[in-house]
Amino acid sequence: MKRLVYVNDSDITAGVFCSNKISNTKYNLLNFLPKNLWEQFGRFMNKYFLLIACLQLWPLITPVNPASTWGPLIFIFAVSASKEAWDDYGRYCLDKQANERSFWVVKQGVKTQVQAQDILVGDLVWLHENDEVPCDLVLMGTSEALGLCHLETSALDGETDLKTRVAPLPCIGLNSELLLKLKGVIECPDPDKDIRRFDANLRLFPPFTDNDFSPITINNTLLQSCYLRNTEWACGVAVYTGNETKLGMSKGLPEPKVTAADGMVDKLTGALFAFQLVVVLILGVAGNTWQSYEADKMWYVRYPKVSRWYDFLVIPLRFELLCSIMIPISIKVSLDLAKSLHSKYVDWDVQMYDSVTCTPAVATNTAITEDLGQIEYILTDKTGTLTDNVMVFKRCCIKGVYYGAGTGDALTDPELVRAVMEKVPEVIKFLMVMAMCNTVTPCKSAGRALFYKAQSQDEDALVQAAAQLQVLLCSKMGSVVEVSLLGEVLEFEILDTLEFTSERKRMSVVVRERGTGALQLLTKGADETVFPTLCSDQQVRPIADAIDRYSQLGLRTMCLAWRDLEENEYAAWSLKFKEASMSLMDREWKIAEVCQLLEKNLELLGATAIEDKLQEGVPETISTLRNAGINFWMLTGDKHSTAVQIALACNFILPEPEGQLLQVQGRSSNEVRISLERVLRTLRITGTEHKDVAFVIDGLALELALKYHYEAFTELAMLSKTALCCRVTPFQKAQLVELVKSCDYRTLAIGDGGNDVKMIQEAHVGVGISGREGLQAARAADFCLGKFRFLKRLILVHGRYSYNRTAFLSQYCIYKSLVICFIQIFYSFLSGVSGTSLFNSLSLMAYNVVYTSIPVMVTAVLDKDIEEKSVLEHPEILYICQTGRLLNPSTFAGWFGRSLFHGAVVFLVTVNVYAYEKSEIAETSMVALSGCIWLQAFLVALETNSFTWFQHMAVWGNVVLFYLVNLLLNLVEHSGMYTIMFRLCSQPAYWLSLLLIVIIGMGPLLALKYFRVMYRPSTVNMLQRLEHQYTNSLSVETPTKSLDVSLSMTRTTFNHGSELGSVYEPLLLPETPTFQKKSGDSEASSDSVPSSPTRVTLPTYSRSKNK
Fold first, then answer.
1. Calpha distance 464→431 (Å, rounded)
2. How far apart, in Å, are the Cα atoms of 483 and each of 453, 514, 984?
3. H/E element, 530
4. What are phi and psi of 818, to 5 degrees?
5. Do 1075 and 1103 form a contact (C-beta atoms < 8 A)?
6. Cβ neighbours, 10 Å, residue 919
7. Catalysed reaction per UniProt (predicted)?
8. Residue 215, φ and ψ in degrees, nearest 5
9. How confident is the model at residue 774 (pLDDT cuts 50, 70, 90)?
10. Which region among 271-280, 407-416, 815-824, 916-925 has the lowest average model confidence (pLDDT)?
11. Which tops the pLDDT comparison, 600 or 980?
């Protein structure tokens, strides 16, 4: 589909296209309540709680006041709705501010000031320097004679360098008076979100030009949210407005990422719901049976003489309401709040602040911090992520002659300097390609000093190197380029630019020297794309050898080529290129086909070698994370040998004999199949050896493997802990992330450029580096870092702590609800299985919202099982989190058993001391509730590892708060608790009952934990003991050695099949069963963290996770 936009004549299409009013809000005043409620009730658990709340409105079946459910439900919904409303109001204010900005628009040949929301498609919009572009415009003219303007696009694509935009060819030279009268038509496609592509055609109406169409590309546009810089004024015609701009089409909420912990909680609550239904069914049958056979024997029980058809449902429904608290209504709110605070720790961490670029760590996704602690695969870009992306021209080979081999710097090589001074033709051609075949923009500072603006660091390095060798790119004025060759200024006209794409992997320009009129084609690109375009008699071997040599040094290589063109040949080709450029369908593919017609019979001039140094701390970070059991894949667009050298330099792969690098190669499906089979055989043979095995594959072989041999390649990926994927496209990067995810592993993708966005969004966790390629990756990521080395702290410290805390919080929330529910169930056997509640509604509400929430929330935010230093020194302990050891069906069974035990203890002690005729029901209820509060205070204290004064206040202050609240309620006559607490507190039996409850309830747990810590300690227990022993001298050498020795002892001495005694592991289970490994290997057992992080050779560990 296409649209026709009439230039400077918006009346023709008035009402056809949307206005320029921006709206990013989800709601309005009329639809907020119904829409928000619809969204909230779209979740299964919310529907369940609503059903329970509605059933409680039936007086016949509700055992408690409906307020006990409606109150928390309305509160939670109100909190969620208020958050949504606040966020949406913020978006409304921003929209209002943007819509009411003033701009100059041409109306009836006169510039008129209007609000941004009143701009229509076809309006001619006049911008001044530093103005923000209000909608998508096609540039018609600027204050510059050649129709140039400069644009800041950082708000759109994150790239900080200024872009040059140029008016279409028919509009160049039009002054401001002519632009006011401009008429024409633009034929463009329907709106899309591709900010790097715009395929359209322009035809101006007479008298401005003839009736020929002229192609328009993205370089002729000014897109919404960009800023006009260093240009006095510019005007353009609006083609896309409002939410139909490219930015508006790109907006939208990304797919929410569900963490492994969240998935496991969903599964556990589902199992709990099934258990609840079974309990309700059993108790319902028992209640109806008791009513039928025993009720008549009780003189004080009065049931209706005439039964109704629904009587058999009353008792089961009553138990359904009574047991509904098994699934805590507050669990989601509690987890969301805790996760938000966990993510704030990332923002506040000064140790992850990059002082060089002034970049702090930022958690843009506050809901997935705990997933960092379960990462098993890291897929990383190379350039700008592992390296600094500071390109320095180091060496070159021109016509087989090596420069810079002796000095290490070609720019100071006397031989190259002499060749330039003597104007050796091949050397001059080589430098001219470096200077002109690029998209670099020369600029001058206030002091008239020349500097360059480049979108590519490689291009900047080449232009800077050529300038140092006295081939200076002086200026670019439209299509005219000035180059200073040894002080002599030469003028060239750029006739056509054959742009670089990730598929072509090369760039060419057609230039005409104004002095001689000679036509030349200048080309640069990757060797595998340039070599096929050379003359058949060209000697390629010397340059190919040079490229291999440079790659082995870890340098980035590029080939440069040249060809003289004939006028007739160029004229014929130019018509085809123009025709392809004006195509609205498949323009990029058609242009690439036409480019191949000209890029042939080239003369190979030589190759360049550019150094990109590793970032500080990269080898240490990769080594540490490898020891933590994390596998690494490098996904790069560089050639094979360069990637291998960088991988060796940063501990990605190990040299022989410690490591082995296998290569998957081939140019056909059969060749790739044979190569895959050979590599798989080798891996199976070496699988039992202690050797670091990796494989390397290039883009073409990868494409064939994924298309024709997916299963074999997947097996290869899982058998090898390290992979190097070279010459891969952004789409292939995302494919590889998806492949690893499909094997049920938690993935993290990290990159710094726009070509990494797809894989960052595809991974479970995306990390963006704020680098020299802009902020696109950082904006698309879940976490933003200044340097790669901060990834170690992000995963080992923040990820691990967050997972530990989330595991504890989620299971404790269920535990505290089960305790009170089991007491209610036990009480039903004393109340004729009638579904009567022991507790009043106010007590139940306060129990869930206040009494049991404050201590656990503080612990879930502040607790640390071991110190950060120990975690970083012994990264192997991350394996406990990776395998889901702290949150799985086994640990949940422990918490379930603990809740059953505690419920039984509280009920039996309370009943034996206070039940029957010894006291009234309200006193019995309060004793049971007090027992629960005291038990859970001691339980939180037992599970807390690092007490602070704030945690003491939360745990013990909460007990004090319980008594203060209830003592105040005792003063209210109609509260249902009038004088109850006064009477209980004055009775020694009350305090003795609480003491008995605490001793019986906590004694076995304390004894079991003591046994595990002292006689069957885990790695964490050993570290905790040594930390306590060396509190004041942990940084001294001797304690550190003791830690290492203890870890070694733990690996070899204890072999019980599970990691015992971890901080939140269930204490009621004698041992944790071993879970089946995903790869299907035979099971092995080990108590502690395995000595090798290799996925294939690791002992089998519990790995119960939802993915």
1. 11
2. 16, 12, 96
3. helix 527-530
4. -65, -35
5. yes
6. 21
7. ATP + H2O + phospholipidSide 1 = ADP + phosphate + phospholipidSide 2
8. -70, 145
9. low
10. 916-925
11. 600
Mean of pLDDT over the chain: 83
Residue type, 864: K
At residue 378, the 3 state secondary structure works out as strand
CA 574 to each of CA 202, 448, 521: distance values in angstroms, whole numbers, following the listed order: 18, 37, 13
Going by C-alpha positions, the residue among 67, 227, 239, 58 that lies closest to residue 132 is 227
Give the containing element (helix H, strand E) for 529: helix 527-530
Cα–Cα distance for residue pair 511/606, rounded to 1 Å = 20
* Per-residue confidence (pLDDT) for residue 982, from 0 to 100: 86
Contacts of 852 (CB under 8 A, 6+ apart): 816, 932, 933, 936
Mean pLDDT of 769-786: 78
Over residues 69-91, mean pLDDT: 79
- Residue 660 has which token pair? 């082995």
C-beta of residue 228 within 8 angstroms of C-beta of residue 131:
yes
The residue whose two tokens read 């040594």 is: 1026
Residue 1004's alpha-carbon distances to 380, 998, 1017, in angstroms, are 48, 11, 18
The position carrying tokens 């401005």 is 208
CB 461 within 8 A of CB 479: no
pLDDT tens per residue across span 794-852: 999 999 999 999 999 999 999 999 999 999 899 888 877 777 888 887 788 788 878 88
List 693's β-bridge partners, or say none: 660
Catalytic residue selected from 381, 458, 527, 752: 381
Contacts of 437 (CB under 8 A, 6+ apart): 507, 508, 509, 522, 523, 524, 560
Q: At residue 445, what is the residue type?
A: S
**Average pLDDT for 473-500:** 88
Cβ atoms 652, 596 nearer than 8 A = no
pLDDT higher at 762 or 1095 = 762
* Owner of token pair 């994390």: 630
Cα distances (Å, whole numbers) of residue 989 to 857, 913, 993, 996? 32, 8, 6, 10
Give the distance, in angstroms, between the CA of residue 1082 and the centroid of all CA atoms in the same chain: 34
Q: Give me the sign of the Cα torsion angle 258, 261, 264, 266.
A: negative
- Looking from the CA of 542 toward its CB, the CA atoms found within 13 Å total 12
pLDDT of residue 1087: 37
Mean pLDDT calculated for residue range 1014-1024: 86
Q: Tell me what percent of the residues of the chain surpass a pLDDT of 70.
A: 87
199 is catalytic: no
User: Is pLDDT larger for residue 941 or for residue 1099?
Assistant: 941
